[in-house]
Amino acid sequence: MGPTMRVVIADDHALFRDGLRALLEAHGHRVVAEAGDGEEAVQAALRHRPDVVLMDLRMPGTDGLEALRTLGVEAPDVPVVILTGVEDDEALAQGIRLGARGYMMKNLQADHFLRLLEAVERGEPALSPTVARRMLESLSDRGSGRRGGSGRLTARESQIVDLMAAGLTSNRQLARHLDISENTVKFHLRNILRKLGLSSRAQVVAHAVRWGLVDTASGEASPRGDG
Fold it and tell me: Which of 82, 148, 151, 169 has the CB geometry, 3.0–4.6 Å to 211, for a possible disulfide?
């Protein structure tokens, strides 16, 4: 089990919040606040400065995306992960563009959910392979007017971006696949973020697909080069 995380749960269903709180606390995490709508979520995040906010999309009043937009301005250091039962590709893309550190479906198995959540503490995106592929598919058909390219990225950096778009988002997965150390992965990822002017790995995936930096023909990554 990873380190204890301080969590805010934002969901308009009290029963779901109760179950999620029980799961988190059973695994050593601490729920510092609950919110039933986006406005309450923003206030709780500003008050408690948690390690992560788990944000539902559809809530009465201020919804999850609007709350995410507000937190991006008022508390950009507070990670927000969308946790929803809504399969909405546009909301997925918009949430990542607004700075969400991840996007998870509520039908995840508990152990998978906890692994993804704890990855946020390490600065990794909470994107399951299924969600990453959906993002790849939903954004790829918008790239007909592709601009940019991987010219600014080395061959190894482009390869890492491809793999992330295919769902390999953790340092461990990338290191194993490329047969390099996790520290080397971190080095390449820092360079990728700097070169693309982005702040999170999830944004790298969205940016790469949007501007045609990955091979989207099959929905899978096509590693290029060995920089």
Answer: 148
How do residues 119-136 score in pLDDT, each as one tens digit? 888 777 787 666 666 665
Q: How far apart are CA 191 and CA 157, in angstroms?
A: 8
d(CA 64, CA 82): 8
Q: State how many domains the chain has.
A: 2
Backbone angle region of 21, left / alpha / beta, with phi > 0 → left and psi within -120 to 50 → alpha: alpha
| Distance separating alpha carbons of residues 84 and 166, to the nearest angstrom | 21
Q: Which of 74, 103, 127 is the last residue of a domain?
A: 127
Read off the CATH number of the domain in which 117 is found. 3.40.50.2300
Structure tokens at 205: 């995936």
195/175 Cα distance (integer angstroms): 21
pTM: 0.64
State how beta strands 102-105 and 6-10 pair.
unpaired
